[in-house]
Write a structure and sequence with these properties.
four-stranded antiparallel β-sheet; ABC transporter transmembrane region fold; elongated; disordered C terminus; binds magnesium ion; Rossmann fold; 624 residues; alpha/beta; binds adenosine-5'-triphosphate
Length: 624
């Protein structure tokens, strides 16, 4: 996933596209909840529009000599029944009602805002939840070709942080923009009703404000995206360093790693600073525009009061509305920036969601019958990770059902790549593989992988109990089956010796296991899966010779009656294989049993002699 791809997607996301995307993330019944939330919020805004009126009446009618409006006179009549006579004179009663009004307006406004915010934020967070789940699920389905080129830290950042873009878009972008638009219309309407000249003066400021928003659109989006990328680099560094902490400490590279981290943190700091400069610069310009508007309204307004066109209360009312008018305008200005920010993150999320896995089920893929063990046939298979360099070249190989085929050869010869094609982690660039006469691509991935078990050099264990780890490939297995698999893998005894037995937690904050113990757990997992095809990629290379022997015993039991592809550097572990295949630079150069290959006196024989400590001249002894 290149950053250019992501930028390209971010820059082409319109607010309309983003809104449609948001609506698609809504769950059942949430459309109605949004309508409720928005209605309540609009109710709150309507109460806010009432706020300046009590003050105007206090100035004009209580302090001044204007007449009490008719509606207010009716209200005063009704209220006067409930107040003591001492408060019943006209001005006192009006003041009492207006002060109570200020309080009630605030109470209703606050109540409606709290309720609507709760509803709308809950919907926003649920959208984040759904997007995270969808992204995580999709990331798991993407082929290794994607994961080879994307760091875990970057994916982590996209799932954890970039997914908040939907909430930002919804709760800080679109909803405030909607409410601000309504409020703007409401205020403009009331102001027009009071005095159209001052309303036009106030609204004139909206034009430069809108031009400013448009001008800042692209730079704001670019800088937001860059800041997110730099932050993601930090996650990547932390993830990479901490996951290789042994190597870092063993080579004493802490200082260099800290420096490298420092450089990334510094880049992030500068990217965020550049964004902040742009944001605060735009805020300052907005502030100046607002001040110019206020000055114009106050100046012209006071002049019109002096001329007797307006009352003092009208000026109080208009200045109050002016302050309220600029709030939604400001909101709209910053909403645009929020939408840019969210669009940048949305681009980073969508660039993953839009990506289809290179390896996926064909439209007419059929499931592989369970317990299909072969034969596996490589028919003129070639493969390249990147187009220039072929890693496997015209490989033809037949692995008969139930047989053990060993792959040997120098490091980088293409052994792991070859077994990766059998598991369909990648598809060949040329030629094809067949399993039991079905092309691999015509079978469903799930059924194919159900028939295979994989044991790697570095066992992959998860942070959960030993029991769950063994049952990873078959979660429905019974305790007896799990124990039986552990016995077969030679793991039962050491598991029993642990204080919590099969319930012992391993991994982070759990017990640490030795390499041999971990490998026996992964063999137990393969036993339990009971798949007819077994792929072993240097399962004992990381172990000392005593542990290797124990693990090899377990492996031999596991390989019994299964089609096995085993990769080994120590040739002593594979000399009993039915067939040994020597790979060199992506090609099969020798093939046969141990005896055949020793007789051939080729690459295998040389490798074997080096390993058993013989010289090529003493091959004759080896042959016997
Ligand atoms: N994910 C990848 N992307 C690009 N090139 C790769 C990738 N994995 C392996 N290669 C290249 O493909 C070639 C074969 O690698 P492969 O891992 O299959 O070798 P191998 O025989 O298993 O080696 P080893 O014995 O060291 O495990 C190497 O040149 C390697 O650099
Ligand atoms: Mg390998």
């Amino acid at each position: 996933m290149t950053r250019q791809d992501t930028r390209h997607i971010s820059q082409h996301l319109s607010t309309c596209t983003l809104s449609v995307w948001l609506l698609r993330l809504c769950g059942k019944g949430e459309g109605m909840m949004i309508v409720w939330g928005v209605t309540l919020l609009l109710g709150g805004s309507a109460f806010a529009l009432l706020q300046p009126w009590p003050l105007k009446l206090v100035v004009d009618t209580v302090l001044g000599s204007h007449e009490v409006p008719v509606a207010m006179a009716d209200l005063m009549m009704w209220v006067s029944q409930f107040v003591p006579p001492v408060l019943a004179d006209e001005k006192t009663l009006l003041l009492l009602i207006l002060c109570t009004g200020i309080l009630l307006i605030q109470l209703f406004m606050g109540g409606l805002t709290v309720l609507s915010t709760y509803i709308l934020v809950a919907i926003g967070l649920r959208m984040v939840f759904r997007l995270r789940c969808r992204l995580f699920h999709h990331l798991q389905r993407l082929s290794l070709a994607f994961h080879d080129t994307t760091t875990v830290g970057d994916s982590l950042y996209r799932v954890t942080w970039d997914t908040y873009c939907v909430q930002a878009l919804f709760n800080s972008g679109l909803i405030p923009a909607l409410i601000a638009s309504f409020t703007l219309l409401g205020i403009a309407g009331i102001m027009l009703f009071v005095d159209w000249v001052l309303t036009l003066v106030a609204l004139a400021i909206g034009i430069p404000l809108l031009l400013l928003i448009r001008k800042l659109d692209r730079p704001m989006r670019d800088r937001s995206l860059r800041a997110a990328e730099r932050d993601s680099d930090i996650s990547t560094r932390v993830q990479e360093t901490l996951s290789s902490i042994r190597a870092v400490q063993a080579f004493g590279r802490e200082a260099e790693e800290s420096q490298r981290f420092g450089r990334h943190a510094d880049a992030s700091l500068h990217a965020t600073l550049r964004l902040t400069v742009l944001q605060s610069g735009s805020q300052a310009i907005v502030g100046v525009l607002l001040a110019a508007g206020t000055a114009a309204v106050v100046g012209i307004g006071a002049w019109r009061v002096l001329q007797g066109v307006l009352t003092v209360g009208d000026i109080v009312l208009l200045v109050s509305y002016l302050a309220m008018l600029y709030k939604p305008l400001e909101t709209l200005a910053y909403t645009a920036a929020t939408i840019q920010n969210a669009a940048a993150s949305a681009g980073r999320v969508l660039s993953i969601l839009d990506r289809t896995p290179e390896v996926r089920d064909n439209a007419n893929a059929v499931p592989l019958a369970s317990k299909t063990s072969g034969p596996i046939i490589f028919d003129h298979v070639s493969f390249a990770y990147d187009k220039e360099k072929h890693v496997l070249k015209d490989v033809c190989l037949e692995i008969p059902a139930g047989q053990t085929v060993a792959l040997v050869g120098h490091s980088g010869a293409g052994k792991t790549t070859l077994v990766n094609l059998v598991m369909r982690f990648y598809d060949p660039t040329d030629g094809h593989l067949r399993l039991n006469n079905n092309r691999l691509q015509s079978l469903t991935l799930e059924s194919l992988r159900k028939n295979m078990a994989l044991v790697l050099q570095e066992p992959v264990l998860f942070c959960s109990s030993i029991r769950e780890n063994i049952a990873y490939g078959r979660p429905e297995a019974t305790n007896d089956e799990i124990e039986e698999a552990a016995r077969a893998a030679g793991a039962h005894d050491f598991i029993q010796s642990l204080a919590s037995g099969y319930d012992t937690q391993i991994g982070e904050r759990g017990v640490a296991l030795s390499g041999g113990q971990r490998q026996r757990l992964s063999i137990a997992r393969a036993f339990l899966k009971d798949a007819p095809i077994l792929i072993l990629d240097e399962p004992t290379s990381a172990l000392d010779s005593t542990t290797e022997r124990q693990v090899l015993d377990a492996l031999r039991r596991l390989m019994n009656n299964r089609t096995t592809l085993i990769i080994a550097h120590r040739l002593s572990t594979v000399r009993d294989a039915d067939q040994i295949v020597v790979l060199d630079n992506g090609r099969i150069v020798e093939q046969g049993t141990h005896q055949d290959l020793v007789k051939l006196e080729g690459q295998y024989a040389r490798l074997y002699c080096t390993q058993v400590g013989d010289q090529p001249s003493s091959l004759r002894e080896v042959r016997t």
